[in-house]
Amino acid sequence: MDYFYAPGRNHLFVPGPVNIPEPVIRAMNRNNEDYRSPAIPAMTKTLLEDVKKIFKTTTGTPFMIPTTGTGAWESALTNTLSPGDRIVSFLIGQFSLLWIDQQQRLKFNVDVVESEWGRGANLDVLAEKLAADRTHTIKAICIVHNETATGVTNNLATVRKLLDHYGHPALLLVDGVSSICALDFRMDEWGVDVALTGSQKALSLPTGIGIVCASPKALEATKTAKSVRVFFDWNDYLKFYKLGTFWPYTPSIQLLYGLRAALDLIFEEGLDNIIERHSRLGKATRLAVEAWGLKNCTQKEEWFSDTVTAVLVPPYIDSSEIVKRGWKRYNLSLGLGLNKVAGKVFRIGHLGNLNELQLLGCLAGVEMILKDVGYPVKLGSGVAAASAYLQNNIPMIPSRI
Amino acid sequence: MDYFYAPGRNHLFVPGPVNIPEPVIRAMNRNNEDYRSPAIPAMTKTLLEDVKKIFKTTTGTPFMIPTTGTGAWESALTNTLSPGDRIVSFLIGQFSLLWIDQQQRLKFNVDVVESEWGRGANLDVLAEKLAADRTHTIKAICIVHNETATGVTNNLATVRKLLDHYGHPALLLVDGVSSICALDFRMDEWGVDVALTGSQKALSLPTGIGIVCASPKALEATKTAKSVRVFFDWNDYLKFYKLGTFWPYTPSIQLLYGLRAALDLIFEEGLDNIIERHSRLGKATRLAVEAWGLKNCTQKEEWFSDTVTAVLVPPYIDSSEIVKRGWKRYNLSLGLGLNKVAGKVFRIGHLGNLNELQLLGCLAGVEMILKDVGYPVKLGSGVAAASAYLQNNIPMIPSRI
Amino acid sequence: MDYFYAPGRNHLFVPGPVNIPEPVIRAMNRNNEDYRSPAIPAMTKTLLEDVKKIFKTTTGTPFMIPTTGTGAWESALTNTLSPGDRIVSFLIGQFSLLWIDQQQRLKFNVDVVESEWGRGANLDVLAEKLAADRTHTIKAICIVHNETATGVTNNLATVRKLLDHYGHPALLLVDGVSSICALDFRMDEWGVDVALTGSQKALSLPTGIGIVCASPKALEATKTAKSVRVFFDWNDYLKFYKLGTFWPYTPSIQLLYGLRAALDLIFEEGLDNIIERHSRLGKATRLAVEAWGLKNCTQKEEWFSDTVTAVLVPPYIDSSEIVKRGWKRYNLSLGLGLNKVAGKVFRIGHLGNLNELQLLGCLAGVEMILKDVGYPVKLGSGVAAASAYLQNNIPMIPSRI
Amino acid sequence: MDYFYAPGRNHLFVPGPVNIPEPVIRAMNRNNEDYRSPAIPAMTKTLLEDVKKIFKTTTGTPFMIPTTGTGAWESALTNTLSPGDRIVSFLIGQFSLLWIDQQQRLKFNVDVVESEWGRGANLDVLAEKLAADRTHTIKAICIVHNETATGVTNNLATVRKLLDHYGHPALLLVDGVSSICALDFRMDEWGVDVALTGSQKALSLPTGIGIVCASPKALEATKTAKSVRVFFDWNDYLKFYKLGTFWPYTPSIQLLYGLRAALDLIFEEGLDNIIERHSRLGKATRLAVEAWGLKNCTQKEEWFSDTVTAVLVPPYIDSSEIVKRGWKRYNLSLGLGLNKVAGKVFRIGHLGNLNELQLLGCLAGVEMILKDVGYPVKLGSGVAAASAYLQNNIPMIPSRI
């Protein structure tokens, strides 16, 4: 029935796709229906309103595209830019690398600002470039808010400050795939022009919706953007928004109902509480890593990610063995090290609909794996460090007080 | 809980998204999992093998892209063609119109061959064009196998014959969205270079996978195709096929399991039996339409579609009233008339995982609606005509004999 | 995956278990939980309040026992009566027969009042017995409201009138298995002392909850009832009701959530609208039977059941062949003739969460089967007769107007 | 949507109902069907064969009764015994107490052999009674294999040895509710005459099937057993077994499919591997308890249960506060102390479809709770002790090697 069955729950700690809450699984457990009936537009309308809240925008226009994060990237770029446009993009890990690859293949002229993997975007270089760019040849700044490969969170507020400081009109395009709805993200306040995420990340849904949110300035940019686009064209959506039927082509009925349920749960918990919960989970994970005597791939505290922790292993250990062993012995799914950090790091995803005891079970599993592969960990040490913090900080469950 | 609840089952007779069988709904009822574990590649491998069977190809290469039919179109075009390329495309209804619109926006040079809506592709014009094109400036023929808006099935075998007759090397790109896995479709035999469908049609899944199958010649064409593409680029898939991990970006775990279950059901029923079943449902529907004294939008028998019937209503009736009434009074979902035939036709979709008694319930509903809107139908007449045919032709259910 | 797979929906027209609405299937799609947490009691409290509404009682006490209708029968009897107690019970078909068998095996002294199968309870005999019973030796009247085997609905109001007329204190115990929540049933108004139903009938849930409702007089009777009982003992429930934990032993978490969803749907549609819908479906079915030239097993209109129709077939046809053929050729599930009417009747169940087009599909199927087995039916005739009535009587769906 | 929502998974560690594996939840996600069609009997036949394997019997006859464990008890007693029959029954905790209460209310003459709660059945007293009972007035020995309230497992092999030693013909009736399919249980080898369990325990299903298995001797006893029974009467089942339709009344379609899936998973894992897994989980839990400096309610190692651990708390702590806090702060469901040990113990259930990392998450949670309520636990100590054992003993997952 299943491929490679194992008893008990799979402990899913890759940084996406993440655990789907039961109420959302339930909401999606349904037959197809006619998306041109009054029901789907009525629901879509509520989704478009509510999805803006997780971007913290009131002025943005959201698009819920039947695609993945990669498609959402493409949509962000092709709707606002023209081939040959100069953009500044930060290479700090595998996902920013892939986005830059896409930018280049889409024929943009990319100034790649590279950092060592484990470090955040080099904003000093950005400042220099902005300062030098008196004629505003830079059309967009592309930045990954949270680099999933290295567990690095970039400081978007500073990016905005720099743009404002230099009075630079470049668009600010943000990949929020592993941040939005989990980390502090403020589209309007930070003047983000295009922000995007994928349904299978902090929203805790299956893969299948790339959610892109465009500022008025970004929408304005579509009028002159010459990049060829059809499937990803926002204008087709806007046309159907006006008609009140909302969909230029067939959406997934199931994902829409799932998104409705997911948003309901998010608002029930409270977006700020969710961000706080991710902060707790991130902190607890880092305390465990420290207790194990291992290093975080992320080099400075200012970049620590609360949705994923990349753990460096000693040179005599192949980190991919850790991931394999998790799956083969403990039914625990951890993230591989990718590209430059392959074999060197394994990753613990701690985003989405997840609670503290789930994380502690994972940490206990990682300890046993570390011992399996020959690292002299003190069993229980990471759990103890994480628990000590959590026991002081977990709030009572509001609905149950 | 639901939007606009009504007791009993919704009778879903739009030509997609169609009814999902219970075993497929069950198969998708699951949490996310790590798509980089050995499980998903192991399953994906079986899917790629098995999905070729519904295209009737052994030489084609399939791509299961997380997108819709519109995305599958774009993938077919951009992977094989370059901007400016001359293509011949047939406009016979709303969906061929939309594809042509996409072709033009993607900067191809489109020879539009238009037919009256209700008629098939004008293959005489194709013959002329091929005959005249001694220098092979035509790079591709784009044709919708089954035009969902008018219920017209084109004759692909003839298209192939013409290409062969003139020794013309143009690629043959086929939209099989409402045909593949329901109508007779033979990718290899008919020399189709790119064929495509969407998961929510005859495969009876939710929306979310655009399945594209490319011939060796089409794969060869990717090497020179200059259309800009990233998300839809087959080469990214091919790279991961070689790695054995299969996915350049995150697929929907749920849809993959759903596709596995759907293919299992398809092979259990037998592809030829499925085509035969659609033939029965199509014929029964047309007999009912005839008994009601109404006309089929499709003008000739050679074009009759076995997956959707577009029914012309008398001028004094607005066909959209029929669709509205179905939803508001009978919990019956019918297809609207689109664009040129808006108000003039309503559509009965009879594709996917559907049986005869479901169709007869629908036909009984249509009769009552027709009476509701003032058409002097004899109640029971269509059901009688359809039943008379079906009672002679339905086979015993093989598993139950 | 499934046993004996067939394409499309199974058309389920046995008089129970009946079709479960999708929202209820969804509500039950969940893991177990601790039934001693605050959640289950909180939900149970709402269920106990709301379930009374479908019995039309404000004074009754409901018990939701993890059992079937047979267990609910046993609970009704053993909680209110003592071995040797004289009861009057009406034998009018297979289910009343089975209840009487139970009554006898539980050591009650049963006055069996038999009617020809197809006729209602002989209330003249009841009147005689009550008149003669000056010393009130009769402790209870047991009556099946709707005999599922023959499609006969008994007149409970008259039973109450007779008891009142003779000032007789006998308890009135009613099997409402195939009536409550589908037919007009008024526990308080008709002075019913114990009424019961099963979750898989008009409530449209899976089998597994026997719902029993006891009047204050019935509760009083428990104090002197000497029948041995433990699992079915109401007092154990009452003890836990007082404690506020509600459950003397483990309930099915899934069925409780399902019942919550089912009740929500019932109240959304409105109990009176549900009864009206069953009346339409019953009437339409009988019109079809008449159009086919067949006889209803129910001999008089006053006993016609709106939840199940037992159809008499001509002597040269074996009705079980009709049922078999439905399953083997049309994926249609009809009810067999039972016991005395085996081979002579087949049954169309039309209860639960069902709409008119579903029924018309079934009727079209029955017509084809009748032809299959050699009965000279005019195809379409039954559907025409039913449609003519329905088209005049189906209301607009309130939520969609 | 849910009552008292909390983010992430509920950690379900009550000793039943237990976690349902996803494939089983999926299998139950379905509409009703006709239980008189060929499908349900065909499946039932496989269930009756396969369910015997988890009792380790080839000669027993199983009954899958739509009821709970309490109903299964009643079925075991009433089918084999007559009112007034002398039985020996061991009182060692809340569930044996409840069974004895039932035995007395069913009018048996019960020799209650009481032990201090936390100790096993006093088999010395049994030996005395058997020795003294030359005339075989004792008709049955009733024993709970695993007392869920105190975490005590009785030695059934010794009970059988005593019966054999004294050549005593008393029936041996065993409550295996929290043991069968989790602990070593051997119906045939130990000469158990009636064994029973409930679907919501080690089988990891919802509540709703009481599975009772009867030896040939137990079946023989039904012929003379005078206890009144109808719903629970095995003879009604046997009658329908002979007919090949299997069900005297309506079963739950969903639970049957669920049981089919559960058995498939059990056989895939292997019953002996399952018992081994429970042994690991039990041992790990006890090591944690020891590391916390707390006492096991179970007084001797020979009685330690591998499915549930009852933990004694110091007198200054109310154990029910621990359970409350688990639910209110950590989304962790622990078992309350019941009756005599109320306030004194809390219970960790570790049975059913559960793996080691789930347990470690629970143990980490218990540690934080202990600290919350003022017990001076060293955080991480229990997890460390459990992990040290587990890391040495968890096998590779066979399907993934």
TrEMBL record, chains A, B, C, D:
Its EC number is 2.6.1.44. GO terms for biological process: glycine biosynthetic process, by transamination of glyoxylate. Its cofactor is pyridoxal 5'-phosphate. Substrate binds at residue 347. PROSITE patterns: AA_TRANSFER_CLASS_5. Keywords: Aminotransferase, Pyridoxal phosphate, Transferase. Pfam families: Aminotran_5. The modification N6-(pyridoxal phosphate)lysine is found at residue 201. The keyword Transit peptide does not apply. Transmembrane segments: none annotated. SUPFAM superfamilies: PLP-dependent transferases. One of its GO terms (cellular component) is peroxisome. It comes from the Eukaryota. One of its GO terms (molecular function) is alanine-glyoxylate transaminase activity. Residues 13-290 form the Aminotransferase class V domain. PANTHER family: ALANINE--GLYOXYLATE AMINOTRANSFERASE 1 (PTHR21152:SF24), AMINOTRANSFERASE CLASS V (PTHR21152). Belongs to the class-V pyridoxal-phosphate-dependent aminotransferase family. This is alanine--glyoxylate transaminase. It comes from Gossypium aridum. The lineage of its organism: Eukaryota, Viridiplantae, Streptophyta, Embryophyta, Tracheophyta.
